[in-house]
Amino acid sequence: MTTEFELIARIAALFGAPEGVAVGIGDDGAVLDPGRFDLVTMDTMVEGVHFDRDWSSPQDVGWKLLASNLSDIAAMGGGPGAFFLSMALPAALDPGWPEGVLEGIKEAARALVPESFEVSAGGGDLSSTHGPIVLTMTLMGEASPAGPVLRRGAVPGDRIVLLGQTGLAAAGLAILRGDVDVEPGQFACALRAHRRPGAQVRAGALLGLYGVPSAMIDVSDGLVQDLGHILKASEVGARLEAYSLPHHPELVMLREEYGVDILRLMLTGGDDYELLMTIPPARMPKIWDMARRHSWDVHDIGEVRSPDEGLVVLGPEGEPVVFEHGGYRHFEAK
Amino acid sequence: MTTEFELIARIAALFGAPEGVAVGIGDDGAVLDPGRFDLVTMDTMVEGVHFDRDWSSPQDVGWKLLASNLSDIAAMGGGPGAFFLSMALPAALDPGWPEGVLEGIKEAARALVPESFEVSAGGGDLSSTHGPIVLTMTLMGEASPAGPVLRRGAVPGDRIVLLGQTGLAAAGLAILRGDVDVEPGQFACALRAHRRPGAQVRAGALLGLYGVPSAMIDVSDGLVQDLGHILKASEVGARLEAYSLPHHPELVMLREEYGVDILRLMLTGGDDYELLMTIPPARMPKIWDMARRHSWDVHDIGEVRSPDEGLVVLGPEGEPVVFEHGGYRHFEAK
Fold this sequence. Notes:
By secondary structure, chain A is of the alpha+beta class.
């Protein structure tokens, strides 16, 4: 097993002088620059639950751990800063594995974080375990000057807007698991969406800065479930128009050539790390303008309604779709 | 398994309105009061490594998790605030277990944190695992107005001061493990030191406020190893006078009646969560004064020396003791 000291040296080499951190790794705790960070997220990845060493490299796992935390900060309309990493590692693990995790975090920071922010290592903890690898990251961030964007804030009449696409990461996982018998080489985007998801870091920060969304969340549990979180926090209902959802070409191929139920993937598949928001009609021109300027993939996919309407999902033909026990069924009428 | 929602409801019921946290559990992340927290610690406890369900109740485990983090903040001379908790739990686990952890955290907060600070729940993450339980806590804190106390800062001539006692938690673990064949009922303090360690929250904050220590650390890895961290960070040497260490009556009983090598426990035993600091001679009257006023258990146990002297440990008879590979041996002369 890599010693704590070797790993600390590796972190220091990879992440250098930590922006926003006055005292980082090597004391009892970290000292942050006063007043710098006011957002905190925490995400855990467990081997055998969130990742499999057969399907994902340590770099993939590190990448995804940072991406999932970045996505939470983006969903609050803020920008990322210092992270803290706990790794529980089996004694027999190849020392290259935790180093690979650090490299993956660094690669994700380079690829996903715009220059206006810097992701730095503030500290962490290293433990041994007799079981599967468990990684926990706490990421600090800065809310925009306009304040954080919360899940509460949606009001009836707001449009429901998706920035990005859903279902691709779940498709990638299904392919890796062998649930679908396909040639993986044809599905590079789906595999990448599972292994190295993006995070809408720049978009989240800009949306927060311009105060565009009334509520926002990142799509990590699945579109319908995450929309449900906004509805519950905002005490409203919604009509989700599934026919307006974007269909990635690889999803279309999965449906056309392999008969996969891609609607289920798009509505309930997790780990997309895209942004789901509600926007008052008067601010819709602003999001279209931003989408054009920044080449964002923006989709108007429904409307916030009064709470007594609950959540109604309209399927591809406009028919209501009802969800039960993690699955769903189509109905003829509501 | 307890659902995430039931546990969140339990956290909310136990920890109420979070002091210092504008938006807590229930959004993508937490929003902290601006400028409030500038210290961060992170500690992980792994079942089978840091605790055993046969020896510790879930309340014990929750207590110890908070205590270890509180101790890190105390060692920086600051005060604690919001915590973030990740729990990776086996699906078959009794739902009462994670609830017990929360109760233990609450009990430790009540018992160890003075009224001038409030420990609140800022958020967290709940995962399933196919392996042992893994708990990670990130605790935010506030440095004193005088600034944080770091590990670097010790200079030759400073006295080495221990607040509290070492070796008792390691004795408790040895008894629970059956390494020593004793009647556990005789060793209530040792068992408690392992299961429900204290944390010098009030003392740490006061020492930071009055700027007494030149460097400070909490004793979690063992006295000699933790002193080594101060020496390395401060680039100094030291003479540790083991004959000045306090001997708890239960340790004395272990030596007298069972022949246990208690010097080893006192010098290398972990998990004591006491405070080890260096203090310039001119400020020693201040610590004695504080010790009298607050009934602190303070011991002057050595001196900071020049870096070329390294770390010299003088045993019970004043003879040098040399440490090797986690053990140690006595020498006739240096």
